[in-house]
Design brief:
This protein has about 325 residues and is of the alpha+beta class. It contains 11 helices and 17 strands.
Length: about 325
């Protein structure tokens, strides 16, 4: 996993100086007998704060837990310093649509508590509550220094006031639209799995090898190839280019003709099917086999923590009894 992550970093290259790096990228892997397989990259991956609590619950010493919290706070402060140098970070707003109705709202509360323990005033807000004044963003009359962005409108088309403030450098926005385009647009997976394109980009052979072994072959779907895609559909997993949270994603062997035709008329990629691993979970008095993926939470190319998501069905979800986030133990 570290090798794949390092290889991706070489491909996308480092951003310019004076640019936020982007917090809590999620590299999602399937692990099976054939190895590890990068399924996708998310630039606003949820769950890090909840998984920090899960890790905390399994430790007898608080030292490591305090260090993890310090790591998180320092990450946000570094995002601020990259843009504002030594000016103190005073206010953060965690922004998402109708945040109190979000499934992961509890982790917004955990993040707020963490920031405020570090002396940073923190708000949890719907984007409509952010008001522009002289191109800066305010909440309840308080100017916001940094926005922790959990919106799934990745280019901020629906929120021009936020995009304008970011473009004018009146607020530090992390993650932001440039992070999404560099890492999380699903078409990037096609680049990561194409040896010819990688060589043309000047990527080192060692990193090309890591990507070809760690990223399932991915192709952009074109309507003119519909006949071939239908014939080969059972070998592929279809994903919308700008999708998130498994919405609109389909295993080819489960797809109907109607859905297939919709895919052919939409912006999709197809990724070679890499089946997830499975593990035994006790639910009540029964032992069940659940699928899982492994998410590496990344900042500046480095793993901060690792978690699993257990589920049944085609894609990850939080509805499976006995499923959800799971602790990953690393043997050293």
């Amino acid at each position: 996993m570290r090798a794949v992550i390092a290889a991706v970093e070489e491909v996308v290259c480092k951003p310019e100086s004076n640019t936020a790096l982007g917090v809590f990228y999620g590299y999602d892997f399937h692990v099976n007998e054939q190895g590890v397989h990068l399924i996708e990259i998310n630039t606003n991956a949820g769950g890090a704060f909840l998984n920090a609590v899960l890790i905390e619950s399994q430790r007898s010493s608080t030292t490591s837990d305090e260090n993890l919290e310090q790591t998180f706070v320092e990450m946000f402060r570094n995002e601020w310093r990259l843009m504002r140098s030594d000016v103190p970070l005073k206010t953060i707003a965690i922004v998402d649509e109708n945040p109190e109705s979000q499934f992961l709202f509890p982790e917004f509360l955990l993040a707020k508590q963490m920031f405020e323990r570090a002396g940073i005033t923190t708000y949890i807000v719907d984007p409509a509550k952010l008001h522009v004044r002289e191109e800066e963003l305010y909440v309840d009359g308080q100017r916001i220094d940094l926005l922790y962005n959990r919106l799934t409108d990745f280019d901020l088309t629906r929120y021009p006031h936020i995009r304008t403030a970011w473009e004018m450098k009146q607020v530090v926005l992390t993650p932001n639209p440039s992070h999404y385009l560099r890492y999380a647009d699903k078409r990037k997976l096609a680049l990561f799995s194409d040896a010819g394109l990688l060589r043309a980009e000047g990527v080192s052979q060692s990193n090309i090898d890591a990507l070809l072994s760690g990223v399932p072959a991915t192709k952009v779907v074109r309507a003119e190839d519909a006949e071939q895609w239908w014939a080969e559909r059972k070998q592929w997993f279809f994903k919308p280019v700008s999708g998130y949270g498994s919405k609109g994603a389909y295993r080819g062997d489960k797809i109907t003709k109607r859905v297939f035709e919709e895919i052919m008329q939409s912006d999709y990629v197809a990724q070679r099917l890499a089946v997830p691993g499975e593990c035994a979970v006790k639910v009540g008095e029964e032992i069940q086999s659940l699928k899982y993926d492994v998410r590496c939470y990344i900042y500046d190319g480095h793993i901060q923590l690792i978690a699993a998501r257990l589920y049944q069905g085609q894609t990850t979800n939080f509805r499976t009894l006995g499923g959800g986030f799971g602790l990953v133990l690393q043997k050293i």
